[in-house]
Amino acid sequence: xxxxxxxxxxxxxxxxxxxxxxxxxxxxxxxxxxxxxxxxxxxxxxxxxxxxxxxxxxxxxxxxxxxxxxxxxxxxxxxxxxxxxxxxxxxxxxxxxxxxxxxxxxxxxxxxxxxxxxxxxxxxxxxxxxxxxxxxxxxxxxxxxxxxxxxxxxxxxxxxxxxxxxx
Length: 167
What we know:
The chain is of the alpha+beta class and 167 residues long. The chain has six helices and six strands; from the N terminus they run ααβαβββαβαβα. The protein has a single domain (12-149), classed as NADH Oxidase. It has helices spanning 3-9, 23-34, 53-60, 91-109, 122-129, 158-161, and strands spanning 45-50, 72-78, 85-86, 89-90, 113-114, 136-144.
């Protein structure tokens, strides 16, 4: 499949079939995330693969109850002390964003659904997963075979989002 096809077919999926995702697919997806670039190659991330139903339910109580129905949840954590900052911009957020995008597109390439989640109660998520105080829980995504086919959402035209040489 061409890369643009992977990007075009990716959707935010909120309903999943109960079929378990193979360890091979999970490893492929995480390998793609591992290869993401990061500030000074700091690789500040750690991904938690959640399969246990009770842990998924505890994690879902952080604000997204529907994710407990996915076969797998992948949680992206970051050590903010590893990458640098520029002004007040903490680069661990950008690093996790790049790695999560690699992960989500790799899942789409394998026919799996995801839904990027960044809004949740971090303290509840940390407790559910045993994450140390110095580590941030930045994002998560359910992972599984889609049980819905959302339509493509409208995108702005290229001419509306670009300019050449000046704003």
